[in-house]
Predict the structure.
Amino acid sequence: MKSTDRARALRARVPGLVCFLTLLLPGAPAQAQRAREAHVRVTVEDLSGATVAGAKVDLLNGQGAVEERISDGRGGAELALPAGKYRLAVSCAGFAAVEQPVEVRPGGSFAVTVTMRPGGGSETVEVGAEGLSAKVAESATRMPMSVLETPQQVQVLTGELLRSRAVESMKQAVEMAPAVGLQLGEGRRDNFFIRGFNAVSDMYIDGVRDDAQYYRDLSNTERIEVVEGPAAVLYGRGSSGGLINRVTKKPRMEGTFGELAFTHGSYGENRGAADVDTVVPHTAGKVGFRLTGAAENEGSQRHFYWGSRYTFAPTLTWKLSESTTVTAQVERLRDDRLPDRGIPYIPAGHGALSGRPAPVSVGNYYGYVGPQAGSNFIHSAVTDGTVVARHSFGDGWELRATQRVAGYATNFANMYATSVTAATNGDFLVGRGEYHGAQRWQLSSTNVEGYRTFSALHLQHTLLLGGEYGREATEGTQYTGPTNQTPVSLRHPANLPPVLSAVLSRNNRFLAQTNALYAQDLVAAGTKWKALLGVRVDDFRQALELRPPTNTTPDFGRTDYAASPRVGLVYQARPWVSVYGNYSRTFSPSGENLSLAVNNAQLKPEVTQNYEAGAKAQVLGSRLLLTASVFRLDRTNIKTTDPNDPTALLNLGEQRTDGAELNAQGMLARNWQVYGGYAWLDGRIVSSTTLSNGVSLQGRRPAMTPLHAASLWTTYQFDGRFRMGRMNLNGLMLGGGMIAKDVQFAATDNLAKLPRYARLDVMATYRRARYEIQANVQNANNIRYFDAAQTDFQIYPSAPVNAAVSVRYRFWRMQ
């Protein structure tokens, strides 16, 4: 059979799943003489023999893409390649990555067939991250899937984006997602809103729930994925507005790599970090080991503030065979700091000052720091261990089992502003509250899922089946001080110790148990139509055990059964553009946030439904990804006050967010990268009988949800073409960006208004061989702004202009 006949036969195979296919070219310049070219057809197929169609094929050399092709409907792509040796790397949503050498000889035509096994873990599949952009994400579907083809809005904050912005906290990271708002979290934990809904319990790490109340460190974070809209179809309870998933660093299994870094910044910040990744020699199979860690001491624009932490995370990956891999990771974090609740607002009745954050110094602190009992502090310790085992069966099934055990412990004392009243001398007096105590949290989570790609009825399926069993337990004690604490001056607060209580106000233990089954099918009809169908069924059991002396009522609990569906449809008129529609639903039980009360234990779960439509396109030669979406989020059955009994609750409330988003990420031109977005969030409490501070919540906007929000970050990398006099600018990168927020309200009562702001940040990096120095300036325009709040009397004044300089040293040795 001639070569052309063989190629024709390959093209006759059944169409398959859309994938992302990249050719990496280590040598052979693109401008080789045409006489030495060969015509090559690459065809990708799965274990069943069905072709994996709709591929994007890039021809790359050391300077980037020099030729691009879009495969036809039969899974192939034609390329004209100069003679030489190549490395063919194929990655695809739902499959394990494949690499194989290809030697191209001058003249003629021939075909290359690549067979792929089902897979998709982060250890084995390229995630498609390129600088500030990412073409593939995992969190929305629990397997790598092209962002272009995912019928949901997903923000991927890549490692390069985090690094170039000198991000060290979750708060700094998620600022780049315009639909995410910041809550103060009582000055002792990460806490965010997504699309107007509280996401305090919607934090994940490598796809496993991580809802302990602490500040996360990012030294072991590869990237962060923000899934917008309900995700209960794969993750269970909560996630009304979305979820935030940290993907951790794993061994690359390619040699030895390392980085040592030191950062010095404003307010006495000093931080050291290390990342070492190597292959362990002389072992059965192939073993990779990676160790990350960091230690930090910091100050703040806030008076008295101090913070100290350390963390480390060893990870071991053992590839027993081509079909079996086991990864084990342990992470340890210790965080000690002063809890900071910010400054209060000025209540109504005081002229132009009313309803605004108090016009005081950004450093004013209304807690207590001193040698006497009641000095504010928080000590947190987190330890977790995760084991992930993967096995590919000969019949095409891929099995992934995950076991995670985690523990969190904290001790704290916290004093904060609760009221503001006028004083006779023209000043104001700030009333204060106080509590102190301890809390423990434990998690055990087991997840087993299998997936396989197959063809049936001329359709390509990627079927995911999974089950989850999880147990969470929290126990805590708390002492709440009297409400008549000595008030202090608003403008010049005295550092006065609180009056402490010796009587327990809380002493309980909460238990939660999850039993769940879920299924998802990604169906492709040719190359233009895809459907993502899924459902999860949860059995969520909750119980509260009251302990002396607070056990004035019997222990109580409840069990909720809920089904969480998702239906998504994608149409690709062209391989580089798609439009989609999506419907999803989630449930939020009374014990969602690991707490339960007498007046909510008998109430059924709140329900959130999301209707979303959008379009996505890869333009400028697929270098730039553009996304646009419109959505409506409706949360019903919200617990509100019983009009006939203010101590009781009813499922009568409703909250809605109508919104739209625009996002862009990728390359505008050679060496010029951009990441940015805009969100319009029209959130409202549609129905409520609850009063807060004497104000009805009905018709109010959700807390920390601006009508307009935008973010932008861009970098330009100079290369050898640029010179300044005799100075070569090769290795220099300049960047900058903006975070902008419209008016926000500190709480849902809408009494305290936070003014709109636009903050500018800039950076410069110079890299030479193994060394790099980077300077970042935040709030370069030196504006006064407030970006987070807890209540009307706890609003956080952000830092004026501040800077940090980082020095890095890298070393490597290829295997």
Summary: The two ends are 41 Å apart (CA to CA). Residues 1-35, 60-67, 118-129 have pLDDT under 50 and may be disordered. DSSP finds four helices and 51 strands in the chain.
